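Lecture notes, continued. The same structure-token format from the folding unit now serves as the input rather than the output. Read the line below as a description of shape only.
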């Protein structure tokens, strides 16, 4: 069963990757793909479309899907709460404030937008951690409350900045960014996000056994020799970097980090270490499929969060109903 599960995930990822590369306004077939890869289509429009547009977008989308799913898995494990999402500490709100500031004061400079978005996400999480420490008491509860407070402040700042924006130009750009999209994907964006995501992901791979122990609770983890405070802080920092780096290049992509870990545990079984890597593969595959639909269903591209929110909400409702149906009456 385990081998079939892994094989199915790899096949799903390969199929979604191939579909994303070939499907679009400029159709490419398997024969075109062979010509491009063998060098027979050198200098043609199909080669330019494949390498400069489709491949760049596909790689960036897969990277963000994997990062958001892994961040969601880590947060749900740390907080021992299956309804926690990657923006639990306000990272998405802070990143949005940074991005809007860049749009308002630096025009549509991609470099400024990514830098301010990433910095805003990290700053918000740092403030959440400081506020949780200042409150004292239950750390897990305080972190969630701090994230809610900072998220509310970020939303207030977003509304104030939108109120200040030029309604004929800037407001539309801001709203579209807040709905998330990969329509401006490029190799430049990919290489700006990839090092941060890969480094944070690699650190989490090394810390996955400590993370597994942390899911048992602080006392149990301490009795097993884990330095609870530093381990938790390192995991939170890496998950935050994954989320902030993804949001900085794609805008807000809703529900992926919340739903994918649920989907993996429900369909493939509750095995922590297997789920850790399965969430990465499943998140990349599902966001690729959602992005392919977003740019193919209508003549104009649909913002990605519309689809991920619709699919995610439907799945969560079905999951909760199924879980209730499986409970035994008292």
């Amino acid at each position: 069963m385990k081998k079939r599960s892994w094989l199915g995930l790899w096949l799903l990822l390969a199929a979604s990757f191939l579909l994303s590369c070939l499907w679009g306004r400029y159709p490419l077939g398997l024969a075109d793909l062979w010509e491009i890869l063998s060098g027979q289509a050198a200098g043609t429009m199909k080669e330019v479309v494949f390498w400069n547009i489709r491949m760049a977008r596909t790689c960036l989308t897969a990277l963000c899907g994997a990062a958001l799913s892994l961040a969601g898995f880590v947060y749900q494990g740390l907080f021992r709460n299956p309804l926690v999402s990657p923006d639990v500490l306000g990272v998405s709100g802070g990143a949005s404030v940074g991005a809007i500031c860049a749009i308002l004061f630096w025009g549509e400079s991609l470099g400024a937008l990514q830098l301010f978005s990433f910095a805003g996400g990290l700053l918000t999480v740092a403030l959440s951690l400081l506020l949780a420490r200042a409150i004292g008491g239950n750390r897990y509860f305080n972190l969630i409350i701090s994230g809610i407070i900072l998220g509310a402040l970020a939303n207030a700042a977003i509304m104030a900045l939108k109120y200040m924006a030029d309604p004929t130009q800037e407001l539309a750009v801001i709203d579209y960014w807040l709905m998330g999209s990969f329509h401006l994907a490029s190799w430049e964006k990919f290489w700006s996000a990839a090092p941060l995501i890969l480094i944070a992901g690699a650190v989490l791979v090394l810390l996955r056994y400590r993370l597994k122990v942390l899911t048992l609770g602080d006392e149990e983890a301490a009795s097993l020799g884990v330095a609870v405070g530093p381990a938790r802080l390192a995991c939170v920092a890496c998950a935050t970097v994954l989320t902030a780096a993804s949001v900085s290049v794609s805008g807000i992509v809703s529900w992926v980090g919340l739903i994918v870990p649920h989907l993996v545990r429900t369909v493939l079984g509750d095995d922590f270490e297997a789920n850790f890597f399965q969430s990465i593969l499943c998140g990349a595959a599902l966001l690729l499929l959602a992005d392919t639909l977003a740019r193919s269903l209508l003549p104009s591209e649909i913002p990605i969060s519309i689809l991920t929110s619709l699919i995610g909400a439907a799945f969560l409702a079905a999951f909760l109903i199924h879980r209730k149906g499986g409970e035994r009456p008292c």
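Point for the exam: The chain has one domain: 2-323.
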